Write a sequence for this structure.
């Protein structure tokens, strides 16, 4: 135990040992000690004992997609009778329903549509901004790359035009594991370098983004560490990632689930979660995935490096289609945060607090 205490303290202080030592600590250090040191770093980064959450909606404007990712049950191929593209009025109604429930923004993503032109997305963003006071957290890197290809524009031009139309920030979807050996097997559309380059360009243009990791689909432990390393190094250059959100494969309804049918065990999730906090010390916010792990695990993760509980997810279609079954309302998230000993505070997608945390936790 004493040996691991020393090694964990060095990681907490920012030492960056070789991968073999990281993996030894992740898998063999006492779990409570690993969680505790991650929690100490969380407290250094967020010393006011506040854990944030958001009321937003995952709006999928279309499920038509030219990619065939083996971990996805949401997409429909072009021409499929179950494919759809929502019209503007339908999307407006979804935003209005979100605002009526106290929402501050929308996370809007869709499939890689082969025909929609960039002006369709630009006009939609402009209409959103003209009609509503809302944060637009939209379009993952694979979508941005698809916009570039469909419209014959550079990624920079696409991002500049979307930002001018009202885009506020970009989600980290499509990250999965940033190792092409794995991405090619899973038929992920963009390469790891394309994903990282799109994020770097967004950061250069002043567009903040989140980063993600979706794991449990046959990657090795070294692949997971390589993913974290690439995020860390990009963040050192750009400082544009505002949060990291790791979650686990939901195998029930996706093709890859036939090969890897077992979910990541809660203890393994917590070990990698705490390790991510220690590794990605340059990304300020770490969000727990109650959607894929449930509330008991989420409560422990709040004492293992997390400072954010994520969204109540008024609507969520992609992960749910793959087999995630958990649901929450605002009261449930607030309750879990308070049970873990923190002050809950509502935020927007830019991790800007929308209320006074002391007042938010006055009843705790």
């Amino acid at each position: 135990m004493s040996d691991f205490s020393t090694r964990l303290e060095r990681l907490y202080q920012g030492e960056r040992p070789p991968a073999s030592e990281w993996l030894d600590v992740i898998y063999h250090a006492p779990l409570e000690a690993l969680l505790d040191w991650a929690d100490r770093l969380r407290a250094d980064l967020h010393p006011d004992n506040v854990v944030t959450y958001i009321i937003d909606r995952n709006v999928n404007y279309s499920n038509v997609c030219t990619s065939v990712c083996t971990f996805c049950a949401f997409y429909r191929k072009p021409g499929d009778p179950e494919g759809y593209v929502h019209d503007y009025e339908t999307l407006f109604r979804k935003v209005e329903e979100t605002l009526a429930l106290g929402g501050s923004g929308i996370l809007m993503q869709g499939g890689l549509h082969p025909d929609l032109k960039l002006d369709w997305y630009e006009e939609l963003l402009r209409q959103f901004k003209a009609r509503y006071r809302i944060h637009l957290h939209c379009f993952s890197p694979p979508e941005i790359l698809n916009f570039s290809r469909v419209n014959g524009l550079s990624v920079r031009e696409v991002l500049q035009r979307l930002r001018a139309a009202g885009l506020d920030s970009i989600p980290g979807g499509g990250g999965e594991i940033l190792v092409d050996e794995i991405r090619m097997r899973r038929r992920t559309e963009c390469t790891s370098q394309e994903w990282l380059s799109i994020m770097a360009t967004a950061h250069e243009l002043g567009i903040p983004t989140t980063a993600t990791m979706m794991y449990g689909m046959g990657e090795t432990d070294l692949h997971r560490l390589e993913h974290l390393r690439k995020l860390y190094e990009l963040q050192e250059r750009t400082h544009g990632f505002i949060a990291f959100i790791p979650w686990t494969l939901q195998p029930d309804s996706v093709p890859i689930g036939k090969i890897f049918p077992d979910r990541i065990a809660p203890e393994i999730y917590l070990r990698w979660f705490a390790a991510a906090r220690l590794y990605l010390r340059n990304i300020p916010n770490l969000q727990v995935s109650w959607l894929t792990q449930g509330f008991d695990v989420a409560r422990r993760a709040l004492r293992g490096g997390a400072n954010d509980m994520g969204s109540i997810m008024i609507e969520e279609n992609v992960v749910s289609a793959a087999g995630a079954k958990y649901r929450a309302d605002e009261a449930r998230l607030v309750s879990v945060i308070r049970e873990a000993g923190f002050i809950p505070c509502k935020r927007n997608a830019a991790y800007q607090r929308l209320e006074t945390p002391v007042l938010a936790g006055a009843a705790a």
